[in-house]
Structure formats: C-alpha cells, structure tokens
Amino acid sequence: MATVELRFSAQPEHVRTARLVAAAVARRAGVDEAVLDEVRLAVGEACSRAVGLHRGNGVTSPIRVALTEEEKTFSIEVGDEVPGAGVAAADAAGVPGARGTAPAPAEDFDDADGEDEMGLAVIRGLVDDVEVSAGEDGGTIRMTWPVSSADIPS
Predict the structure, then answer these.
(1) Which of 86, 106, 117, 121 is the most buried (most CB within 10 A)?
(2) Mean pLDDT per segment of 10 residues, for the chain of length 154 residues?
(3) Which pLDDT score, from 0 to 100, does residue 85 have?
C-alpha cells in the first residue's frame, strides 16, 4: 500500500494543486482515464469545503489530503480540523456512511450550511463510494475508486 500525503494552508489557491496531484497519483495507481475528471472534481469540492470550514471557523492548521493506492482500490481522504462540522450536512445530503460523534449545535450553522450540503451532494454524485465522518478532532471525507486490473503489474 502506497500513500501520498499533502498538507496545505487553508487558502483557495492551493485547491488547484491538490486536484492536480490527486489526478496524477490516481493515474499512476491505475484509476481509469475516463474517471480522472471525476477524481479532480471530487477532490476540488472536498478541498474547497475544508478550506471554507477552516476559514469560516478561524482554524489555522493545514488541510490534510491522503492519497492511498491499494491492491484493488484508490482512495483519497480530505481532512479538516473543525470539530463536528459537516455531520448535519452529510446527513441532509444523504451521503452513505455519514457519521459523527455529535453534530455541531444549531447556532454554529448559518447559510454556509447550504453550500456545505451542495458540495457534499456534488461529491456524492461524482463518487460511488463516499464516507463522511466528523468528530471532536475534525472531519474527513473518504472517497474510493476501483483500480483497473489491466493496469496493475503482475
């Protein structure tokens, strides 16, 4: 299992770099060429969401992105450090596997929630296997794609 890790400050201009790195690593892992645009878009949505959460909540720690190549799958995890953020939005967007220790109190949510729900819905539309989790240490969006067996060396 090979993993590439990125950490970047919560600045919108870094999202493009994360998308490019994700597409390059996905291609090398054997993700079908026809799916690479979906990988780019999904990573862009997840990273933009994390940047928005960090900036909106005054969190200065970096956004975490882990790109993991396994035998039959390629997964990307985008993590933020905003406690409890996104659980209600994940539930509302119908994201399978959405879970969390406790949703943030209602007063912590404002119009940004609509944007959060929309971003999660877009990710769900792009990726068949999505898990959203949130807890006291922050949240994670895990997206997984199959790897083409023809591209895996024997």
Answers:
(1) 86
(2) 91 96 95 94 96 94 96 95 66 44 39 70 92 91 86 44
(3) 64
What dihedral angle (degrees, nearest 10) is formed by the CA atoms of 56, 61, 62, 66? -110
DSSP string, 1-35: -EEEEEEE-S-THHHHHHHHHHHHHHHHHT--GGG
In 3D, which of 41, 40, 45, 16 has the Cα closest to residue 27?
A: 40
pLDDT at 119: 85
3-state secondary structure of 131: strand
Can you tell me whether residue 68 is helix, strand or coil?
Answer: strand
With 0-12 / 13-18 / 19 or more C-beta atoms within 10 angstroms meaning exposed / middle / buried, residue 50 is buried
Q: What is the dihedral of CA 75, 84, 113, 122, to 10 degrees?
A: 10
Q: Containing H/E element for 97?
A: none
For 149, half-sphere exposure in the C-beta direction (CA atoms, 13 angstrom radius) is: 0
Place of tokens 């970096």: 62
State the DSSP code for 112. H
Pick from 55, 81, 57, 76: which is nearest to 65 by CA?
76
